[in-house]
Specification:
The chain is an alpha/beta fold. The chain has helices at residues 18-29, 41-54, 70-84, 107-134, 156-176, 194-201, 210-221, 232-242; strands at residues 9-13, 33-38, 60-64, 89-92, 139-145, 182-188, 253-256. It folds into two domains: 9-191 and 230-253, 3-Layer(aba) Sandwich (Rossmann fold), CATH 3.40.50.720; 193-228, no CATH class. It has a seven-stranded parallel sheet, sandwiched between helices. Helix 3 (70-84) packs parallel to helix 4 (107-134) and helix 4 (107-134) packs parallel to helix 5. It binds NADPH dihydro-nicotinamide-adenine-dinucleotide phosphate (NDP).
Length: 264
């Protein structure tokens, strides 16, 4: 199936690892030009070098930037405009979760989570909006979490902030469609990627392999597919929603959780 994005331009925030990186690979394989950002210069240049082994350099732009710093995001947008002259798809993926129950969550963490989940989308949207408005296939696609609809006690601040993001993206979908911009989200369950690798490195029982550790988590949590997702799986969902294949879809939240969703 043709995704109709050849020669188009996609911006992926947080593309230097995990889901964002796999999304870049799929976009490039479909013929799109890509721009991506992350905070760590080392991770960014490693990702850029890996992508350039398989795809032409002129179709890839990596820019060091923290999505929470509006001036850095504005610089990123200026560089994308200079290089590609357009943006058709904005994929807001940058972020991480915060694991803590209510009594372990300091006020600072509440503020950080709210800031990351909301301004991690608001800042890139403001910076790239003028270019998106000029596109005839414009889309904004946000990586969100099932926590938005199905909160977990051990991630109370992240769950609340995810719900706020889902609420905001639904409103944005109504407001931006008049400019021809679709806005959708994916709702993730647990996906093997950077944040799980970090938690694996910190596990208490170091005799467990990655497969044993992730399999035990999936079973303990009751994921019907009995495994964590692979980063390519949300990446595929992101590509569908971002591309003209989803041309009549806006305001949607697509579940990518291996059947972990229990809400109606
Ligand atoms: P990774 O840690 O592998 O990737 C996160 C990416 O975001 C990295 O490139 C990281 O680079 C970048 N990033 C983080 N914070 C910022 C920032 N402030 N500004 C710019 N870039 C940033 O994790 P995942 O691939 O798993 O996560 C992708 C998204 O999916 C995140 O939003 C995460 O919260 C969400 N998610 C993931 C789940 C999972 O189970 N994996 C579950 C639910 C949601 P750097 O650190 O260098 O900035």
């Amino acid at each position: 199936m043709n995704l109709q994005i050849e020669g188009r331009v996609a911006v992926v925030t947080g593309g230097s690892s995990g889901i964002g990186f796999e999304t870049l690979r799929l976009l490039l394989a479909e013929g799109a030009n890509v721009a991506f950002c992350g905070r760590s210069a080392e991770k960014l240049s490693a990702a850029e070098a890996t992508l350039k082994q398989d795809f032409p350099s002129e179709r890839i732009l990596a820019h060091r930037c923290d999505v929470l710093k509006p001036e850095q995001v504005a610089d990123f947008a200026r560089e994308v405009e200079q290089r590609f002259g357009a943006v058709d798809m904005l994929i807001n993926n940058a972020g991480q979760g915060f694991v803590a129950h209510f009594d372990e969550t300091p006020q600072e963490a509440w503020l950080n989570e709210a800031q990351l989940k909301l301004f991690g989308v608001i800042n890139p949207l403001q910076a790239f909006l003028p270019m998106l408005e000029r596109s005839d296939i414009a889309s904004v696609t946000c990586v969100n979490s099932l926590l938005a609809l199905q909160p977990e006690e051990h991630m109370i601040a992240t769950s609340a902030a995810r719900a706020a993001l889902l609420n905001m993206t639904l409103t944005l979908s109504k407001q931006l469609i008049d400019k021809g911009i679709r806005v959708n989200s994916i709702l993730l369950g647990m996906v093997e990627s950077g944040q799980w690798r970090r938690r694996f490195a910190e596990r208490s029982d170091t005799s467990q392999s990655w497969e044993q550790w992730t399999g035990a988590i999936a079973e303990h949590r009751g994921i019907p597919m009995k495994r964590l997702g692979k980063p390519q799986e949300p990446a595929q969902a992101l590509l569908f929603l971002a591309s003209p294949l989803a041309s009549f879809t806006t305001g949607a939240a697509l579940d990518v959780s291996g059947g972990f969703n229990r809400h109606l």
